[in-house]
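As noted in the main text, all predictions were made from sequence alone. Below is one such record, for Surface layer protein A domain-containing protein.
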Amino acid sequence: MKKTWMHWLRAAVVGAGLLFGALAVGHSAQAATGSTVGTVNYVQNYGIALYEQPGAHVLNKFLKTGTRWQVFAGAAAGNDYYFNLGGKQYMSGKYFDIQNESSTQALRAVGRVKYVPGYSIAIWTKATSGQKPVPGRKLLHNSAWRVNRRQVVNGHVWYELGTNQWIDGTYFYLTSEQSRGTKQYATAPEDLVKPGNNSGNNNNGGSVTPPSTAHPDSQTVYVAASGKKYHFITNCVGLSNADKGKLRTMTLAQARAKGYTQCNLEK
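Prediction:
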């Protein structure tokens, strides 16, 4: 690895474009069987804004890096693809990794190794497990490195730190970012969100509902401590300011009987 990349780096200024503040919407999703789930990818502790429409009308709502969300549909706009997370809530594919996705993406960023204090981790010649490690090269825990490319292999993230020098994204996180390019997908993104294309489990809590135009009276809904709206999913943007620990559950019939109406963002 080039010596110029081996020194400690100060956090770079967050680049222009679709790079937004640190506050993000809370709870992430737990995938229903057969559903499509994606993960927000950006700088640690920061979030990415949602759009009301693909590529248009930015909402004042942010989804935090590392949170997982169910995907209902998607649409292309310009050179990007936008995934629908329910209602009028769209996330740019540049910052959202679908579960079984394979893609490559230019990236100018800085990140740190997260391993075991006092220990180092190997880097690899290619962005996939089972390849040869770079001879004599290991990166110390918490050391900082520049990144010039990002690759997703069947849903698993890798970062390129130099020519044929890749680190597993499990052991690396971004601390700052200047820019990133549009993803080059191995499979068309619209094919990634077809029902049954993937199924996954999320360990971060919360719940989601598979896409449906009709909901039985017995279906569970979620109600905040204040307000008069019910929600089918706990990761709805309409609950972004609610205390997730105080959400109440009831059946759809009970909610309607008590005067609650469906959140407009889920229609």
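The first helix runs from residue 189 to 192. The chain is about 5% helix and 40% strand. These features were considered when defining construct boundaries for the mutagenesis experiments described in Section 2.9.
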